[in-house]
């Protein structure tokens, strides 16, 4: 696995895509999560799964992953275009205003493809900033959705849609 690098956050008027063609999601954006990526892009298909190495934190109703540590965290990989990336930036609080919770990272990881085989891919990952997770407990599991479901807590949030995000602009 390559070393991640940060992408600087930019003002809304200066928004630019990160330039990679895939995103790895590990929390509420996974299939079945409150912000299931298919709600943003109906018909989108997971192309495979990977594990991200770091430390997964419990931020209440969603997780935060720091790419520091040795925990193996399950992530689903989806195709990414500029419109979807901008919508994801809205969910993660990076656009149109950066709320200081996450940063964007590009990692090159092996992806177990749904059709079989493994392929190295550059993927966008939303990493929690150190101040976001400094007091958050570590999730003692690699699969955040399964762990959260096991807590038996009803998620209070409303799922994001492209309309929700467009109305926030």
UniProtKB/TrEMBL annotation:
Q: Which domain of life is it from?
A: Bacteria
Q: Which GO terms describe its molecular function?
A: transferase activity
The record, for InterPro entries, names: AIG2-like_dom (IPR009288), GGCT-like (IPR013024), GGCT-like_sf (IPR036568)
Which residue numbers delimit the Gamma-glutamylcyclotransferase AIG2-like domain?
A: 23-145
Which Pfam families does UniProt cross-reference here?
GGACT
- State the UniProt keywords alphabetically: Transferase
From the Swiss-Prot or TrEMBL record, give the protein name. Answer: Gamma-glutamylcyclotransferase
Taxonomy, top ranks, is:
Bacteria, Pseudomonadati, Pseudomonadota, Betaproteobacteria, Burkholderiales
